[in-house]
Structure formats: structure tokens, C-alpha cells
Amino acid sequence: MKNLSLIILLIAATFASCSSDDDAAPQQAPTNTSLIIGKWNVTSIVIDEDTLGTDDCELNSTLEIKADGTYLEQTYGGFAGNCSPDSPDNGTWEVLNNTFIQKGDTNFSTTILELNDTTLKYEFEDEDILLDGTVIPFKEVWTFTRSK
């Protein structure tokens, strides 16, 4: 009987000494939604695997993604020495899985390739339609760094 009491005591002591992590708040990994909020500066644009030169004015573009679900995008046109801002685009945004959706003057969806504290990189496919009706599809990859 003494041995049975000793075994029960050891088992009880073992369970009592184990801590439970059930009370601890779970660590939340940052989501794409929380990571994407901020002001971003374009650092690279690649069109069909060709990188735009540093003199391209589009590299002056910025994208501000606000916590209230709105965004403001300022793009630029022209070439070195003759850059001019395009009309700003603003509207609402959302992230669904790895898709960044902008709803503004035009609705626009991009696939997020990379997103962390310092870098946002996304791609999209579009097409140009020439005057003769020829359709030329292309893929663009934009890389941003977070503004300080």
C-alpha cells in the first residue's frame, strides 16, 4: 500500500510541476494586412524581365497605404530632368491572401511576391492596345522600400 501511495504522489507531483501555456497570449505573426500599412517608395520596376533605368521618372512614385483602409498613390511620368507627377490615385484597399486589391479611379489587383518590414514587391499582368488594335500583354514587377 505504501508503494501505491508513493506512486500516486509522484504522478501528482509530476502533473503539478508541469506548467500550462494555455493562459499565455499566443504570439501573432504579422499579417500581410498589418505589414503593408505605411508609405512606400518605388525602388525598382521590371517590365517583362527588363529593369527600368534609373532615369525613369516612375521610380519617383510613392504608395501610401493607410490603416483606415484607404490609399494614396502618386506616380510620375517623363524621363530624367523632365519628371512630372501624374494625377494622384486614391481609394480603398484590401489584402486577400497574397493579393493586394486597390479600388479607386481604377480597380487594380496585384500578387504580393514579398512583404516584410522594409520591402514590398508585387507583380501584375496588363496589356497595351496599339492603334491598329494589336494587343501586347506584359508583366510588371514593382519593388518598394518603406519610407522612413
Your description of this structure?
With 148 residues, the protein is mainly β. It has a single domain (31-146), classed as Lipocalin (Beta Barrel). Helices cover 14% and strands 47% of the residues. It has two helices and eleven strands; from the N terminus they run H-H-E-E-E-E-E-E-E-E-E-E-E. The chain has helices at 2-17, 32-36, and strands spanning 38-47, 50-51, 62-65, 70-74, 76-77, 84-85, 89-96, 99-103, 107-115, 119-129, 135-146. The strands form two sheets. The chain has an eight-stranded antiparallel beta barrel with strand order 1-3-4-7-8-9-10-11. It has a two-stranded antiparallel sheet with strand order 5-6. A hairpin with a 3-residue loop joins strand 8 and strand 9 (107-115). It is globular, with a radius of gyration of 26 Å. The chain starts with a helix and ends with a strand. The model is unreliable at 3-16 (pLDDT under 50).
Residues in helices, as a percent range: 10-25%
What is the correct CATH architecture?
Beta Barrel
Rg:
26 Å
The best one-word shape is globular
Number of helical stretches of at least 4 residues: 2
CATH superfamily: Calycin beta-barrel core domain
Summarize the helix and strand pattern as letters. HHEEEEEEEEEEE
Strand order, largest beta sheet: 1-3-4-7-8-9-10-11
Query: What's the CATH topology name?
Result: Lipocalin
- What is the typical, i.e. mean, pLDDT? 84
Number of domains: 1
* Unreliable runs: 3-16
Q: What is the CATH C level class, in words? A: Mainly Beta
Structural class: mainly beta
The share of residues in extended strands comes to over 45%
How many beta strands in the DSSP annotation? 11
> For the terminal residues, how far apart are their CA atoms?
72 Å
